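haha ok so turns out i had the wrong file open the whole time. this is the CORRECT one, sorry everyone. sequence first:
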Amino acid sequence: MANITRKELIKMISEKIDRKYPQEEIYWILKGVFGSFEDILKNGDTLVVWDYFIMEPKLKNEQKYNNFGKGTISIPSHYEASFRPYKKLRDACLELPVDEKQKSKKKSEKKKQKNLNENGK
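then structure:
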C-alpha cells in the first residue's frame, strides 16, 4: 500500500477517463471539488455521496486532562470532520489481501503500545 499524491491521483483520473481531458483541467476540477468539501464543512452542512461516503462536521465535547505539575488543561468543545465510508468503499477495502506479516506486525505494535501505557502509569 502506498501514499498517493495529488499529482498521481490526477494521472489516475486521466487514465480512467481515457485521457479525454488534459491533466491541467483535472487539476482545477479536483481543486474545486476539495474546495467545495471545505465550504460544506465550514457551513456546517453534511455531504452524502450515496454508495460512497458521508462527510459531516461532528461536535466533540470539552475535554480536561491532568498535566502533572501544571494543573489541568482544558480543550474546549469543537467540531471535527467525520468521514464514514459507504458500501462501495467498504467493499473495495474488503478486496485487499491480508498479509500475515503485516497482521503480526500490527499485533506486536499494539502490545508494545500497551506495555508503554502500562509502564507510564
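The mean pLDDT is 88.
again sry for the mixup
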